[in-house]
Design brief:
Structural class: mainly alpha
Helix content: 55-70%
Low-confidence stretches: none
Largest sheet: none
Distance between the termini: 23 Å
Number of strands: 0
Shape: elongated
Amino acid sequence: MSQEIHINLSDELKKRFHATCIMQGKKMNHVVIELIQQWLENNDFYANDEGKEL
């Protein structure tokens, strides 16, 4: 199951992101997912001992 999230970007940042994704043949959605996964590798609360108590 997947869910939507919405983010606010400046017009300039969105244009640059969109153009760069097109130039690399990637979908913006896939790049965002990759970035979130990379960020979680270093910052995931549930991956450390503190999060296991939840």
